[in-house]
Design a protein that fits this description.
about 270 residues; 7 strands; Adenine-specific Methyltransferase, domain 2
Amino acid sequence: MIEPILKWAGGKRSLIPEIISLLPKDYRNKKYHEPFFGGGALFFEIQPKSGSINDINRQLMNFYRVIRDKPEEIIELASSYKYEKEEFYKLRDKYNTPNLTDVEYASLLLYLNKTAFNGLYRVNSKGLFNVPFGRYKNPTIVDENRIKKASKALKNVEILNKDFSYVIDYSKKGDICYFDPPYSPLNKTAYFTSYSSDGFSWEDQIRLRDTCISLDKKGVLFVLSNSYVKELVEEYRKIDSFYIKTVKANRAINSKASNRGPINEILVTNILVK
């Protein structure tokens, strides 16, 4: 396995065994699609031979393209950045300016991910990254070995920046798709919409369910993770061919330490459960 390069809110490292237990035995040989890529923990565990990864966050997908195509360049540039408060805010301002090269944006994203408060990626209504400086003892900003391994794993996949529904056209019967969307909120004040400036609404959650229905009709295998919200669970229970499993998961990145413990989540799949 390869450790993810980035810390990312909603990462699924703790759920990987549960997700893999639902997949067919030959999952490593199947074409794989991940429309909400984030930190890509499952992808880097599986290391599929072909497929697509996607995310609505344009800068994130640029980062992975650079990791795939120009690993030496990002290693060299990101290694030149210093972990200092003054340097952090200078580089954060630079990241928020237009007309940088792809390698510059990717290097800055890596630096900010490792040095910003709590590993958060958050933008304001203008799309500007605004997470403050984080205090760490001695953060590893550039893990050269991990970057090179990730670059190799990404060589044979398409890297996209589209709406998640792209996968209906990209996938074929027998392919595997994993959905890790922005989670449905546990309460009315919990919606985290600043990952991108567009947010993810209840209507989007329903569109995602409908996308799963379309994939099921095509014979595409999928697993979807989400929070255990009664209204959302009921939407998936309406589909006879879907199986819902309740699991415990840790949320590692949260502004409040009290909200980082294990909570109920759901895994939804159309794969015949073993």
